[in-house]
Design a protein that fits this description.
It is a single chain. The protein has 60 residues and is mostly helical. Helix content is 57%, strand content 0%.
Length: 60
């Protein structure tokens, strides 16, 4: 059984977060706002981020 909280997103989320964290505070705040808006838009439109949702059997 795998822990889903440690799964790596397939859309580059971790690299995007690392990039944001390397920015000065004011720029970081703007970048997190943009990221939030992107993720919110994906949720609202039903865009699937996780590849496991594309393959419900869990096989890759």
């Amino acid at each position: 059984m795998s822990d889903e909280t440690t799964a790596t997103p397939t859309d580059g989320l971790w690299s995007r977060l690392r990039l944001i964290e390397g920015q000065p505070l004011a720029a970081r705040a703007d970048a997190y706002t943009t990221l939030h808006d992107d993720l919110f838009r994906r949720l609202e439109t039903g865009t699937r981020v996780d590849s496991r949702e594309k393959n419900p059997s869990g096989h890759r």
